Amino acid sequence: MASAWELGWADPRRLHRHGRQARRLLDDARAQLAEGLGVRPDEVTFTPGGIAALRWAQEGLRYAARRRGQRLVASAVEHSAILTSGRHVAAMANDPLLHAEVGVDRLGRVELGAWEGAVAYQGTAFAALQSANGEVGTRQPLQAAREICQRHGIPLLVDATASLGRDPVPRDFDVLAGDARSWGGPPGLGILVVRTGVRWRRDAPPSELEHGRSDIEPVIPLALAAAAAWGDTSGSLPVESADARRLVDRIRAAAAAVPETEVAGDPDDRLPHIVTFSALLADGEALVTELDRRGYAVASGSACTSSTLEPSHVLAAMGVLTHGNVRITLPLAGVAPAREATVDGFCAVLPEAIAAVRSQLESR
Amino acid sequence: MTAADHPSDSRPGPGPGTEVLVDARGLRCPIPVLRLARTLSEEPAGTLVRLLATDPAARVDVPALVRMRGFELVEVAQEATWTAYLVRRPAQG
């Protein structure tokens, strides 16, 4: 990362030596990521983060389809950057039909029958589906979902911000959004992939940057660091994901062994490194604090841990208990070499931590 | 609104068809579901318990409790600013 800052500081549009070097480094980073994603370099745009990639993907697809319609079809468990944009467009137009959320089953997988019905509805501009859910890990049936979209001539945006670097690269997409953090890269860098021939257009003046798909200059050191991290992570992916899956299986078993505790999401067809569970009659905020006190940093989808006091929309859509919720995202082994010992320690203290938090509620 | 504004856990009296009220309006998760679960386990099987809650998490967590403990969700009614959940613990067997 430090060497990336030394090499890539110059303006890549300048013709002097430093500018040409910066241009070459940016081109190399783009080519390396494109190769890893199985796409052409000119299909890859650097964005200021994963959320920006999701937003630009939507804006371009919606604008390009403006004569056909403005309607978005998305699963009910998509990233909030998708769902809030869709709701915003529908609210501004005062037309609730412009935003369609397709339900999921108890494991968090989109209902394909309802998906087809929603995609076929008149005025649909594009559809959005994640490769896998970032909260519960469940993979989505991308191939089947895209076949349905293709039958109706609707482009599919795939949100891969949770899966890139952790799971095989998705193949079934028209537009893809990613976040360098998911493959161990730096924060503040996202990627937008628009396949050749897909109708995507910026609603903005022409730009010379990023094949016309951006007016924000890519931060070259971040792009270099992201490409280097991709090289490291993709090389170790098979070993890394098998190891993460084994450790997450341990956490799943430890959580399921605690009385009245449910593990959410698909047990097998899922991301290897994410696990979510909910303990009945436990306070999520207290559980996060109790685990933190014992040295374990976890997240939660419980309402009491969110600024809005609304529970996780993912857990709610799945019909899974939202209180007493704990979410763990296993770091890459390269980042956390001691993770196996940490997982074992976590599994050992989990029953006590849940019991302690439950007993706090006895008098409430 | 606080819990003190409402009578809590009032009991119309024993007998078949009895309904127990748990007023958890203004309380946040997991307290409404906790009070519902406690009342259901204390009352005889078959008793109907009516939970009143304003907490948005209860919309997901009451059905989840019902599923996990084998209770029966008889009715969900949206009132002015709260939701009423009518739940029963079935008799054993």
Overall description:
The complex is a heterodimer of chains A (364) and B (93). Helix content of chain A is 41%, strand content 13%. Chain A is of the alpha/beta class. Chain A folds into two domains: 2-234, Type I PLP-dependent aspartate aminotransferase-like (Major domain) (Aspartate Aminotransferase, domain 2, 3-Layer(aba) Sandwich); 237-360, Aspartate Aminotransferase, domain 1. Chain A has a seven-stranded mixed β-sheet, with helices on both faces. Chain A has a three-stranded antiparallel β-sheet with strand order 8-9-10. In chain A, strand 2, helix 4 (80-92) and strand 3 (99-102) form a beta-alpha-beta unit. In chain A, helix 2 runs parallel beside helix 7 (220-235). The model of chain A has no long low-confidence stretch (mean pLDDT 95). In chain B, helix 1 runs parallel beside helix 2 (58-69). Chain B has helices at residues 31-42, 58-69, and strands at residues 19-24, 48-53, 72-78, 83-88. A four-stranded mixed β-sheet of chain B has the order 1-2-4-3, with helices on one face. Chain B has one domain (18-88): Translation Initiation Factor IF3. The longest helix of chain B has 12 residues, at 31-42. Classes of the chains: A alpha/beta (364), B alpha+beta (93). Chain A binds chain B through residues 260, 262, 278, 280-284, 302-304, 309-311, 315-316, 319-324, 361, 364, and chain B through 28-31, 33-35, 37, 55-57, 59-61, 63-65, 67-69.
